[in-house]
Write a structure and sequence with these properties.
The chain is mainly α. 69% of the residues lie in helices and 0% in strands. The chain has 6 helices and no strands. The protein is globular and about 55 Å long.
């Protein structure tokens, strides 16, 4: 193998490491956050701030119960995670799927392009709005944390 071949191989490895840096860094940050929430129980008062919307209005936002959901998820209690915040729990699995896709594409040198049409974004917003309204109504108390 000549010097040019070695240089090309080295450049390819450096390029791959650069491409993997962002998805690996994001995974490290998410892992650190989940580790903290897994060790510092949000069910014990005083460790985390109260949701400002809940404090000011008494209305549960779509994120209310998210920390309790993350704690239950990281400790392996999927049922409790779903009951604390079903949307957040689904989001954990969605994040994992997108992250694997991102890492795979970065490894292959292809960018991650997820261009969602505006209708999808409106749909996501509608689901979050419906979830928020239903969990604040008496018949939707099962969705409340």
């Amino acid at each position: 193998m000549g010097a040019a071949d070695r240089q090309t191989g080295r450049a390819a490895r450096v390029g791959r490491l650069r491409r993997l840096g962002t998805p690996v860094g994001i995974l490290a940050a998410v892992t650190a956050a989940f580790t903290y929430v897994g060790t510092v129980d949000p069910n014990d008062p005083g460790h985390y701030p109260v949701c400002p919307l809940l404090r000011l209005t008494g209305v549960l936002c779509p994120g209310c119960g998210g920390l309790r959901s993350a704690h239950a998820f990281i400790t392996g209690d999927l049922g409790t995670a779903l009951s604390a915040n079903a949307i957040a729990t689904v989001g954990y699995f969605l994040f994992a799927a997108v992250w694997v896709l991102w890492l795979t594409r970065a490894w292959r040198g292809r960018p991650l392009r997820m261009g969602l049409a505006p209708a999808w974004w409106w749909g996501v917003g509608a689901v979050l709005l419906i979830f928020t309204v239903v969990r604040n109504l008496p018949f939707g108390s099962a969705l409340a944390p």
